[in-house]
Amino acid sequence: MARFEFIKCHGSGNDFILIDVTKDEALMSVDWSAFARVACNREHGIGSDGLLLVVCHEDGVYGMDMLNPDGTHAEMCGNGIRCVARYAMERGYIARKDILRSGGKEYNVEEAAELAEGISAYAVDIKVSPWSRDFAFFNEGERWLGKEIEPLSPKFPFTALSLGNPHIVALVESISLDELMMLGERVKTLSNVVPNGVNVSLYERRSSRSIFVATYERGAGITLSCGTAMTASATAAALLGYVDMGERIEVRNRGGKVYCTTTVGESIVTRLEGNATFEWRGDATFEGSEFAYKRVEELGEAERWSEFVLSLNRE
What is the CB-side half-sphere exposure of residue 227 using CA atoms within 13 A? Predict the structure, then answer.
């Protein structure tokens, strides 16, 4: 029976179970996919949008291994990696400006200015590619910017981008969660178009420096927010001229907000800044189908975040 501590945390309302598997070698043998399917369940488990494992690779580089609620691995998660960055910095695993590895790629992370009073924030630089083998609907070397993907829907002008994980995002006048659900479910049937699945987002332009995003996450469904999806949406908006390139763009979502800054040089890089909120600490046991957990300590940050989100809604 595996026993371990965990932290319930979130980035912009995108919530996770965070476990440090470097503290005990025995944790490396746990079936974390099975654990994710049980623990992320909101009816019978702890309830979360995913599982974050803090890992240390053989070369000494710390990183994140993320699992979706269905037990599949995600190459990258912008909200999740900020939570892992905070944890690793606070425990001295990495410096306040350092790197973390996720999905075989390394990401620059650093502590950022508070999002609001008492709301700690962290930043990650994400390299954005306008092409990926995850997209079978266009050829290498092309860019798919604001164009229809006919097998999916002729209605939406999608931009396809890879941020370590694949995204398609489309500008709309007004977001319909019903339409977003339809698109997210539809892509599951299009293995000839997106062979490894894809995250689908719709975004609204609020101003030259503000957008609003909603996302259907691959392996999770519609969530309050998705860090890489907000990054992909802000990047697409900048590439298409809907927001100011090189400026700090406010990206709102149903869970809160982050900031994204896109720069284009030899490559496209977007910096994602946002909260990493630790809500409570718990203990869990797991083996096979046996799972139990208990709350051990409230960490006092959930109320501050709720007040912050309420202040956004009043603006």
Answer: 33
CATH superfamily, domain 128-274, is Diaminopimelate Epimerase; Chain A, domain 1 (3.10.310.10)
| Tokens (6 digits) for 144 | 């798919």
Residue 191: Cβ-neighbour burial (10 angstroms; 0-12, 13-18, 19+): exposed
Q: Do domains 2-122+276-314 and 128-274 have the same CATH topology?
A: yes
Give me the residue spans of the domains in the chain: 2-122+276-314, 128-274
Task: Select the CATH number that applies to the domain covering 2-122+276-314 from these four: 3.10.310.10, 3.40.50.300, 3.40.50.150, 3.40.50.670.
Answer: 3.10.310.10
Of the residues 9, 40, 83, 226, only one is catalytic, namely: 226
Tens of pLDDT along 247-286?
A: 999 999 999 999 999 999 999 999 999 999 999 999 999 9
pTM over 0.90: yes
**Is residue 226 flagged as an active site residue?**
yes
Q: Is 83 a catalytic residue?
A: no
Residue pLDDT, tens place only, 158-177? 999 999 999 999 999 999 99
CA distances for 257 relative to 23, 53, 105, 159, 279, angstroms:
32, 24, 25, 22, 18
The vertex-126 CA angle with 123 and 128, nearest 5°, equals: 155
Q: Out of 9, 40, 77, 83, which one is annotated catalytic? A: 77
